[in-house]
Amino acid sequence: MSDVWEVAGLKAAPGSFVQGMVDLPGVSSRIPLFLLNGRADGPMTVILGGVHGCEYTSIDAAIQLVDRFKQLEALGRVAIVPVVSMDAYSARSLYVHPTDRKNLNRICPGNEHGTETERLAFQLFQTFLRPCDILIDLHGGDMCESLVPHIYWYQTPDPVLNEKARRFAQYFGIPYIYRSRALGSVYQSAAGAGNISVLAEAGQHGILYPALATMLVDGCLNALRSVGVLPGTPFEPSGQVDIEKSWWPESDQFGAWYPAVKAGDRVQAGQKMGEIRDLFGNPLKEYFAEGAGVVLMCMTSLAINPGETLFAIGC
Questions:
Q1: Residues 127, 179 within the same domain
Q2: Residue 152 above 60 pLDDT?
Q3: Per-residue pLDDT at 257
Q4: How many domains are there within the chain?
Q5: What is the pTM of this model?
Q6: Mean pLDDT on 190-209
Q7: How many other C-beta atoms are found inside a 10 Å radius of the C-beta of residue 183?
Q8: Lowest mean pLDDT among 1-10, 17-26, 56-65, 127-136
Q9: Is residue 1's pLDDT more than 70?
């Protein structure tokens, strides 16, 4: 590889790494960017943290990966953005951008002339998602979420790409592997452009969990060994569960949410999952499991608004 690699004004010569705060056109805040330009040709790998600004375990994992890649010989090129949503990070704004109140992980590939989040989504897609070969989007459970570690890969019309993505996800060693068809997400946009793309979740409640950050770091490195981006033989995970179907019910009430289950519980169809009460303690609505499976995520915030996800069951 003989070419200097330039991304958002940051330039990395062959066999070197650089880092700095960079500007994306139309985006108000600078973002941190690390580039490693390998000595040999290979795929372009992009690792993202902080698509949601309060998912601190994943952000810490991305920061740790910057340090790890400074010491590694990687094939091809590696870009790491430890925090994508800088405004949400600095404002401690869960899920959404603090100005337009939009969720970056619901509106990709964005709009060049739209709102702040839409412009960020557009530039993220153009700069990183479309040109990459491999995308790893790290998430970690927001301030109002409890979850068990799981990893998503996006099902595209291409069966060959799907199998590559599923196998790549498997090498993370995370307990649950989730086949997704959700639209508008960062990893879906990368998969739609023909790239191996996964979203890994580990962490919860907007708290930094060092052991779970280590899970994400080790999973990334092992998965990248499995496709030859990093040297060495990957370990072969076992005992993982493929999630083929899921339910994500949303609240249609304002009030106080009282869950009857917790993340990681096994539930049966028809089992009570929780209820919403008014602010005088009167029951408003009960919620029940649509099918049997494992509770991947549960809302733990007492405050609940219409349209917010209450829990997720996967099977």
A1: yes
A2: yes
A3: 98
A4: 2
A5: 0.96
A6: 95
A7: 12
A8: 1-10
A9: no
43-93 pLDDT tens trace: 999 999 999 999 999 999 999 999 999 999 999 999 999 999 999 999 999
Q: Is there a single domain that holds both residue 100 and residue 194? A: yes
- Token code pair at residue 110: 């964005």
CA distance 30 to 136: 21
Among candidate residues 47, 52, 134, the one with its CA nearest the CA of residue 93: 52
Q: Which domain holds residue 229?
A: 5-242
Which residues, other chains included, contact 233 with Cβ-Cβ below 8 Å and sequence gap of 6+? 225
What's the confidence (pLDDT) of residue 2? 57
Are 128 and 266 members of one domain?
no
Q: Could you give the C-alpha distances from 306 to 249, 285, 309, in angstroms and in order? A: 11, 12, 9
DSSP assignment string, the chain: --SPEEETTEEE-TTEEEEEEE--TT-SS-EEEEEEE-SS---EEEEE--SSTT-HHHHHHHHHHHHHHTT---SSEEEEES-S-HHHHHHT-SSS-TTT---GGGSTT--TTS-HHHHHHHHHIIIIITT-SEEEEEE---TTEEE--EEEEE--S-HHHHHHHHHHHHTT--SEEEEE--SS-HHHHHHHTT-EEEEEE--BTTB--HHHHHHHHHHHHHHHHHTTSSSSPPP---S-EEE--EE--B--S-EEEEESS-TT-EE-TT-EEEEEE-TTS-EEEEEE-SS-EEEEEEE--SEE-TT-B-EEEE-
**Last residue within a domain, chosen from 185, 218, 242:** 242
- Among 3, 149, 148, 94, which Cα is nearest to 301's? 94
Same domain, 307 and 180: no
What's the chain's average pLDDT? 96
